[in-house]
Design brief:
CATH topology of the largest domain in chain B: Alpha-Beta Plaits
Bound molecules: flavin-adenine dinucleotide, NADP nicotinamide-adenine-dinucleotide phosphate
Radius of gyration of chain A: 18 Å
CATH superfamily of chain A: NAD(P)-binding Rossmann-like Domain
Radius of gyration of chain B: 21 Å
Oligomer: heterodimer
Largest sheet of chain B: 8 strands, antiparallel
CATH class of the largest domain in chain B: Alpha Beta
Strand order of the largest sheet of chain B: 15-11-13-12-18-19-17-20
Number of helices of chain B: 14
Number of strands of chain A: 9
Number of domains of chain B: 3
CATH architecture of the largest domain in chain B: 2-Layer Sandwich
Number of domains of chain A: 1
Shape of chain B: globular
Order of helices and strands of chain A: EHEHEHEHEHEEEHEHH
CATH architecture of chain A: 3-Layer(aba) Sandwich
Strand content of chain B: 15-25%
Largest interface: A-B, 19 and 16 residues
Number of strands of chain B: 20
Strand content of chain A: 15-25%
Structural class of chain B: alpha+beta
CATH topology of chain A: Rossmann fold
Distance between the termini of chain A: 39 Å
Helix content of chain A: 40-55%
Strand order of the largest sheet of chain A: 3-2-1-4-5-6-9
């Protein structure tokens, strides 16, 4: 399968997404970008055009609003009929949780990281089926593999996302659609600017490049960078009895 | 979180604590932060300045890190419009494959365009191209009241000349237009010549400046009398043979990192003498004429990340002066003698003649003459005393000190080195300040 030449990007303003899009731009791809703020999208479009993108269009969308997601999807499918790739990168990491559970934050986290993605995919799958081709890459997270006290809401939402994507992969197995679940470890971006950094952090530039590369490959379950596969292997086999005492 | 004390300058001296560093993601956020906070602000680029021009103790830094987008590029004129957080490295990565290169580059490619403008930096081709501002066509400045001024040599030119070399004090540069130059090959034809003493330097430099675009010398400051100023002179030109394929493939540069601070015990005069001896030996054994990749020619230090940790916890003190043409011989002799007598060794000492192209910024550093840059391990009082002594000499010979590499010059000295400072003061944004600024205004 070839690398998409008409890529639609949700959460295009995310640092990781931009770093990925640079590579698409350098290859002369056509891009359609979505994020919340029009001004930011304009800056991004100028940047990617300067880097060699054949064309860049954009439209605003807010992942907390169903209507806005619908509108954006319809607009893209209308104006970008040759779209052969979809890259979903938006995400929301709530501030560190304390002991009390704020249901509203849980709902928002779930809406942005999970429901909005389901809604977008629901719109795009029929398009790709009609096209008889499509590459879908969604950024989930290693956090979705095991819950931790500081980000239980985020982990739960990313777990739902990862699980949904593996279900979707089965559903589309007889089509020419590839569903790639991207699981970054920790990446230096505005999202993690307030967390203590350690040696496991990856630069966004590298994460973006690895994601671009995974558009070229067959692997559908990708850790960014690859060593997180082993860290998560170990993390997953620690018995819950012990895990609950760990201060991670 | 990068804790607020973590924002150091490249020399890691002085050590200060900041209140906070903001990381606005776009111009709106930048303007919002500036308007909704009261303590003073200082724009922050990549933190590659050595002294305290990029520090603002007890107050705020406002980083350009996330404002690193390109805005447009004109393939005819080579004019790139980009945000201020774009680095020289970003530009090379994207435009060298198309055959374009920044006409002026410093000794590291990790500096931002905002930083390059605010210090009006210079490169090894000063005698041909002048300062960095010579390739700046236009810029947009955001002030703390939210106003954005677009300026160039015709429009709002007074703001333009204050902001180039303006040390981050006139406002936050949002974007700038940089005129790139055409290249046909990413390689430099470089030659090295052994110099036995400072007299050799004067001779070789004069000849080289006529025929070579890049000239610079490395000298050993631990030797006196007839060996004083011995070292290696490097001169080079861009390779003129068309190498299209190489333009695209020469970007990758292998690098290593210094993982921790070196123990200070390794930083004494004797070890520095040995280092210099070794360096001279190694360099004089090279073939004298080589064709090398631009990275090895311009940015040799970039292959070692965090090399500043080699100078131990206390950091290093960089010192760079320029002496006007008419006094350069006498002044350099005295300066080199003073340094050698002090027994404070410098690892990498660089000597270069600046050309006659005039500096444009009110506070730009370069002037026609000779510039000398030294780096001393920060061994405390002795280094500081030496620097004060050197400042006196520089003043006596009509020269000046480079703010981007200074942590020690006094307010009296600064104001004598930079007589335009009183004119510059009008352009300072009332909410902007820096550790450097407070030091050089405390009379
Ligand atoms: C290895 C090495 C080699 C070097 N070689 C040279 C050389 O050959 N020639 C030379 O001239 N210099 C040289 N330097 C110094 C360096 O080029 C300058 O200090 C440069 O200004 C650093 O840029 P920066 O992006 O790191 O900015 P910083 O150090 O973070 O900031 C420098 C100044 O720019 C201001 N600033 C930054 N961004 C903005 C903005 N957006 N708007 C307004 N003001 C802003 C800051 O307030 C500060 O005053 C070298 C430094 C190193 C570490
Ligand atoms: N950084 C890490 O360590 C890490 C690790 C694992 C996974 N991830 C995932 O990687 C993805 C990219 O994140 P990043 O690290 O690059 O962070 P980032 O730069 O902060 O990007 C976050 C993105 O999410 C978008 N977003 C947030 N809320 C939104 C909303 N309500 N509607 C629409 N868009 C919204 C933002 O768009 P606006 O510009 O409109 O605000 C922005 O594009 C996310 O899915 C994140 O969960 C990150």
């Amino acid at each position: 399968m070839n690398i998409p030449n008409h890529l639609a990007v949700f959460g295009a303003t995310s640092e990781i997404a931009w770093e990925t899009c640079k590579h698409f731009a350098e290859q002369g791809a056509h891009l359609y970008l979505c994020a919340r703020k029009e001004d930011d999208l304009q800056r991004l479009a100028d940047d990617l055009l300067t880097r060699g993108a054949r064309s860049v269009a954009f439209c605003p969308f807010d992942a907390t609003e169903e209507k806005s997601i619908d509108l954006a999807c319809s607009k893209i499918l209308n104006e970008f009929p040759r779209c052969d790739g979809l890259y979903i990168a938006h995400g929301f990491l709530p501030p560190n949780e304390d002991n009390a559970i704020d249901l509203n934050i849980y709902r928002t986290t779930m809406q942005i990281n999970y429901f909005s993605v389901v809604q977008i995919l629901e719109k795009f799958i029929p398009h790709f089926i009609k096209l008889k081709y499509g590459k879908i890459a969604v950024i989930s997270s290693v956090a979705g593999e095991r819950g931790k006290k500081r980000n239980a809401a985020y982990s739960a939402a990313k777990a739902a996302l990862t699980t949904f994507l593996s279900g979707l992969r089965q559903k589309t197995k007889n089509t020419n659609i590839q569903v790639i679940t991207l699981k970054p470890g920790t990446v230096i971006t505005p999202m993690t600017a307030n967390l203590p950094q350690n040696f496991l952090f990856t630069r966004a530039e590298k994460a973006g490049r690895l994601i671009y590369d995974s558009f070229k490959k067959k692997n559908e379950n990708v850790y960014i960078p690859g060593f997180w596969r082993y860290i998560m292997l170990i993390t997953r086999i620690i018995p819950e009895k012990i895990f609950k005492h760990l201060n991670l | 979180m990068q804790d607020a004390t973590n924002y150091e300058s490249w020399g890691r001296f002085p050590k200060v604590t900041h209140n906070r560093c903001f990381f606005p993601r776009n111009p709106d956020e930048t303007s919002h932060f500036l308007q909704s906070n009261n303590a003073s602000f200082l724009p922050r680029g990549a933190g590659r300045s050595y002294g305290d021009v990029c520090l603002n103790a007890g107050a705020y830094l406002i980083s350009s890190q996330h404002q690193n987008k390109f805005k447009s590029f004109d393939n005819e004129s080579g004019i790139l419009r980009c945000e201020s957080g774009v680095t020289i490295s970003d530009i090379i990565q994207s435009f060298l494959p198309l055959g374009w290169f920044p006409p002026i580059v410093p000794g590291t490619k990790f500096v931002t365009i905002g930083g390059a403008i605010a210090n009006d930096i210079h490169g090894k081709n000063h005698h041909r191209y002048g300062n960095f501002s010579r390739c700046v066509e236009k810029l947009a400045l955001l002030r703390s009241d939210g106003e954005i001024t677009v300026c160039d040599r015709n429009q709002n030119s007074d703001v333009f000349y204050a902001t180039i070399g303006g040390l981050g004090l006139t406002g936050f540069i949002l974007w700038a237009e940089i005129k790139l130059r055409k290249l046909v090959s990413p390689r430099i034809v470089s030659e090295s010549i052994v110099m036995h003493n400072i007299d050799d330097f004067w001779q070789i430099s004069q000849d080289a400046n006529e025929n070579y675009e890049y000239t610079v010398a490395w000298i050993d400051t631990t030797r006196r009398t007839k060996n004083m100023g011995r070292g290696i002179f490097y001169r080079g030109n861009h390779e003129e043979v068309k190498k299209d394929a190489l333009l695209k493939t020469s970007l990758h540069h292998r690098s290593v990192s210094v993982p921790f601070n070196m123990p200070e015990i390794l930083l004494n005069f004797r070890s520095i003498q040995l280092f210099n001896e070794f360096f001279l030996l190694k360099e004089s054994h090279h073939e004298s004429r080589r064709t090398i990749n631009y990275n090895s020619f311009f940015f040799p230090l970039d292959s070692v990340h965090h090399w500043n940790r080699m100078y131990g916890k206390r950091g290093l003190i960089q010192w760079q002066c320029v002496i006007p043409h008419s006094n350069q011989h006498k002044a350099l002799n005295q300066i080199l003698n003073t340094i050698c007598n002090s027994k404070v060794g410098s690892f990498l000492t660089v000597l270069k003649e600046f050309g006659e192209i005039k500096s444009e910024g009110l506070l730009s550093f370069p002037m026609q003459g000779t510039t000398l840059a030294l780096d001393f391990p920060n061994t405390g009082r002795t280094v500081q005393q030496l620097c004060t002594q050197l400042h006196e000499l520089v003043l006596r010979f009509g020269g000046r000190i480079y703010p981007a590499k200074d942590a020690l010059m006094s307010a009296e000295h600064f104001q004598q080195f930079y007589p335009n400072f009183s004119k510059f003061k009008e352009f300072i944004d009332p909410k902007f300040s820096s550790s450097f600024y407070r030091r050089i205004t405390q009379l």
